[in-house]
Amino acid sequence: MSDPVLQVSGLGVTFPGLFRSTSILRGVDFEVAAGEVLGLVGESGCGKSMTASACLGMVPPPGCITGSIRIDGQEVIGRPESELRAMRGSRVAMIFQNPMRSMNPFFTLGRQMIDVICCHRPVGRREARTVALSELKAVRIPDPELALQKYPHQLSGGQIQRALIALALACQPRLLIADEPTTALDVTIQAQIVWLLRRLADEKGLAVVFITHDLGIVSQLCDRVAVMYAGRIVEMGSVEGVIDQPRHPYTAKLLGTVPVVGRGTGDLVSIPGHVPDPGVIPTGCAFHDRCDRATGICAEADPPARTFGEGHLALCHHAVRHQQVTEAP
Ligand SMILES: Nc1ncnc2c1ncn2[C@@H]1O[C@H](COP(=O)(O)OP(=O)(O)OP(=O)(O)O)[C@@H](O)[C@H]1O
To answer: Which parts of the sequence belong to the ABC transporter domain (predicted)?
Structure first.
């Protein structure tokens, strides 16, 4: 197998404070291969976006970053800002939740695409325009010539998100980090963006990290999924493995919150309690005070990583027995 495009190991992000420091990420490990889509899921505040920022070398000051992040074998941590700037856009690109906010409202799409392409590739403006047109066609924007002449407000949210994906691809990255790129879009457009990202991974061998709260999208789009809780990956494996046979009680509860049309009372299910503030993470397993399987050891000792078949692991003292729990009424 070829080397992974993205290799994250022992990633930690800590913010110093007046009396004590706050650990936002606490030893995150994962890899993404070419052509693979990894879903990164978890409740709000568990550290998904911070993981993405770290991969782009964009942890806000005064955050301290430790561990290792390699993109195409090149270390990100400790690299000078000038080199990181060159890496962003060329090796790694990112798309965000609100596509409109990623565009400058005062310039046409064409002007913005050409500027970015000229900045990242050794081409003149005429050639950059040809590249922009070809990428807009690749993401199936109708009438790309006309789209280039439009201002952001003249395009729909779905068209802008496609244009941003086109812009990201025009710089020929190996890795795309998508932070909730479909949240602001209606379900039909969401489905089109999901289909587009899957096609780009399959056809161009793009490695994709897809951050989302939507486990339905994960099951349609992703090859593997990593579940985060309180700054750690608590379960990771193939989508089939994790979604059909969750081993961590947190994953099972997260799956239990997904509404299913035509089933249940109609009430939305939530997980009691909340993600701990990074400044006050409980000892032992960070999930123990919300977990109905917790025993004494869960409050005392760090949970071990247990493996279940190829590439499926869960950080839980009771992960082995958990399968029976998910089947209980
Ligand atoms: N610049 C910062 N300084 C200090 N703490 C921060 C900073 N940015 C984020 N945090 C904290 O880090 C934790 C993780 O935030 P992050 O945005 O990564 O979560 P998330 O899982 O992406 O949440 P959401 O799904 O709501 O976007 C949160 O508790 C947040 O308050």
So the answer is: 6-255
CB atoms within 10 A of CB 19: 5
Tell me, what DSSP letter sits at residue 263? S
Q: Which of 278, 283, 280 is nearest to 301 (CA)?
A: 283
Q: What is the pTM of this model?
A: 0.90
Amino acid sitting at position 25 = L
Q: 257 C-alpha vs ligand 1 centroid, how far in Å? A: 22
For the CA of 277, the nearest atom of ligand 1: 29
Measuring from atom 28 of ligand 1, which residue has the nearest CA? 45
How far apart are the C-alpha atoms of 160 and 100, rounded to whole Å?
A: 7
Question: How far apart (Å, rounded) are the C-alpha atoms in residues 294 and 284?
Answer: 11
Non-local (6+) Cβ contacts of 86 within 8 A are none
> Cα(49) to centroid of ligand 1, in Å?
7
Centre of ligand 1 to C-alpha 114, Å, is 33
**Model confidence over 133-166: pLDDT tens digits?**
999 998 889 899 999 999 999 998 888 888 988 9
Measured distance CA(98)–CA(107) in Å, rounded: 18
State whether ipTM is beyond 0.95: yes
